[in-house]
Amino acid sequence: MTAAQLQEAMCPCPANEQERLQEVLHYRFADGGSEKALDEICGLAQSLFEVPLAFVTLMDATEEVVLASCGAGDRPIPRSEAISSWAVLSDGVFVVEDALQDPRFHGNEWVQRRHLRFYAGAPLIVRPGVAVGTLCLIDTRPRHLSAGETERLAMLASLAMNELSRRRTIIDLRRQKRLLAQATRLTKVGSWKLDVRNDSLTWSEEMYRIFELDRRVNPTREFFKQTLSSASDADAQQAVTALVQEGKRFDHEVEITTAKGHRRWIRCLAEAEWSDGRVAHVIGSVQDVTEQHQHNAEIERLAFRDGLTGLPNRALFHERLSGAIAHARETRTSVGLIMLDLDHFKTVNDTLGHDAGDLLLCLIGERLQRVFGQNNTVARLGGDEFAIIMPGIKTAADIHKAVERVMELLRHPVEHDGRNFSITASAGAAMCPQHHENPTDLLKNADIALFRAKLAGRNRLIGFQPWMRLAVERRAELMQDVRSSLKENRFKLFYQPTVSLADSCQVTGLEALMRWEHPSKGLLTPAAFISAFEDSECGHQLGELAFDSAIDQMRRWLDDGVEFGRVAINLSSAQFRSGNLTEVILDKLAAAGVPPSRLVLEVTENTYMGWSAEMVGDALRALHIAGIKIALDDFGTGYASLTHLNQFPIDRLKIDKSFLRGTSDGAIVHAIVTLGARLGMTVVAEGVEDAEQLAILREMKCDEAQGYYFARPMPADDVPAFLNEFRGRSDGEDMTALANPQILGRFDETQQSTCA
Questions:
Q1: For FRET with 483, which of 37, 342, 406, 420 sits at 20 to 30 Å CA-CA?
Q2: CA-based nearest residue to 356, from 434, 407, 453, 421
Q3: 599-604 and 629-635: which strand pairing?
């Protein structure tokens, strides 16, 4: 027989052992120790049956646990050695008259070493078929148990079981009380009872914590009533009186002041008990809901307030806009709506970091609130987008005056990490009911006006006009058309030569100009799709296309031995915002094997303006050091000051063609030529169309020129032939005499239809 089989034979288990063990767990009391009543039962059994030992035990899975005894210790007995293992299987008293003669027990340690001869055990029965332990008698001599003695032992076992059940009930009640007390602490719920007849008040321990009272203070009805009545809620004050006098149910959340002066929110529930037609008692509960109120306030803040600036967010803005429009409709007044964006805010984040950007947004929020005050709503809708609702305005002039103050405040520089920077803003405005009475459409119209302000050069306010909506729709169609054409590779580069006006008149270079081979409108110049360059996505793609095409074409000309001089490429402000323009250009040149000295970058004056001037300057300096020439395009038409000529590495000044059309502009052209010469810059005149203009420029000693007089923009394939014919003219020929140069006629004719 194996050890496991021997163990099973010596320690039998009932069929419902798991059920029985589950019950045993309920009587393995945590506080342990011997119970006085059970000890007395053991003493009574010892005396009544005249035995040396009496036990009350529990039969666990592995051992017999002594709960009470008389005449022996309380050490556990291994279940394999406990005769009670058989007793718990029985519905009645289990008797072993002489253990030495019983084959089941004659080898038992208690029988061999402790001289146990007699055993009688009455099961402690929880319910029929389930016994958790025994009341057992042990003697050192064989004995016989009569029927009467068997009955009395069973009765004592019943008394022991009743005592165990009583003890379990008491412990369960204590446990429940502890759990209830813990629950009230966790939920911060206190209970109370008011005897209306004698004004006595009793309440639970948690009430002291909620009201922060000293536990030595006895609660009174007057204190409780004053506490609730001190709430600012007038309805709560009336409800307290109605509760006590009329028995009406009380259910209110009120703000109280505790005994220590703290403000708390509590929820009080109370109901009346009636006796003889009148209120006898009031029973209720109080829950501290301060954290819940704070949590709700935080949720409301997160739901309706911008986390960075604390201004109303988009959700609260829409709610207030709808409310303002509804009120204006009732009072027949007007509402002004301003949409405001910071100009080139992304550049702040990209160059100074998001900390600087966050600081700037907070300062802008403060300045906007300072201008518009409490009667208007200043909201942050996201990113660098702000909105202002101005109810009760009379005319659009009210909006313009406020925005002018904002623009003035924005000019004040901001300091961050030892650096000063300023920023401008673009704004669009619309009015209700003048421009729409629907909140969604009014907002859309203000957005359209903001968009027009950006297109007009930023740093300005533009009011909505009905024609603007149509323009936006047309622009959207244009953007879609441009995107489709980019995918279909319909954008090409044409090249227009730049000619030296010195005696040895030569082509010094070419300007790369974008053309759109539109499927239905023919060949279009950038004037037809200039807004595409302002779009971040399209502008970036067009810029990349121009660089890739021009550099690839320069490589082919170099391979073919075509002496083209330099190629000029126009840069937009959008291209500088990538933050890595310098690396991109130099990498493209290196990959194609094109020397940087072959490239000219043309930048307009407006690109230098605004906060991004420092970033643009840094990029151009790095490119200039690498050997690339820098040209200031359309000089005199933008917003740049003369200080930019010294601040930035400018090699070439390009005089805008508008200055060559009017006779009154001759002094301006002469001044620019003189200024450029004194600063050591090459001056290039654009838009030269006739010999007279050419003669004047040569007389002014302008360095170079370009325009239809020499050649219209041409496809790359036509450039080599043009350069050969241009060089092939007679050496002594004077360009001023070529009012209609025969050698250029063919190029002029072929390009007439392609340049709109």
A1: 342
A2: 421
A3: parallel
